[in-house]
Amino acid sequence: MAMNCSRSLRSLILAEEAVGVVGRRTFTAGGKAKKGGKGSGAGDALNASSLSKEIKSTTVVGGNILKEGTDPKLLADSEYPDWLGHLLDKKPALSELRRKNIETLPYDDLKRLVKLDNRA
């Protein structure tokens, strides 16, 4: 009886080890990806050095999210909405907002102060 249990236990352990070996992720040596393989994206990505300066300055390279189509063209600054230019403006830090008088803060800064203070 003990012999049968040890054999079945041994076969169970070997089966688990085989599953563990099969289930592991492996990577290629040297870190190079296959070219043209499914999902590699090598055919979709354009080499940045192969693009001319004219194309780089007139189009949004990589802006096309659809399978078919072209990258969108850049427009003049007057054709974009005003709020778009303010997205990258620096916002005051919590310590700077705490130093200011709360009664004189604009609504957006007051809202930011409350949010950052709650986080802290």
UniProtKB/TrEMBL annotation:
Its main location: mitochondrion. GO terms for molecular function: structural constituent of ribosome. GO terms for cellular component: mitochondrial large ribosomal subunit. Keywords: Mitochondrion, Ribonucleoprotein, Ribosomal protein, Transit peptide. It is found in: Mitochondrion. PANTHER family: 39S RIBOSOMAL PROTEIN L54, MITOCHONDRIAL, LARGE RIBOSOMAL SUBUNIT PROTEIN ML54. Belongs to the mitochondrion-specific ribosomal protein mL54 family. This is Large ribosomal subunit protein mL54. It comes from Papaver somniferum. The lineage of its organism: Eukaryota, Viridiplantae, Streptophyta, Embryophyta, Tracheophyta.
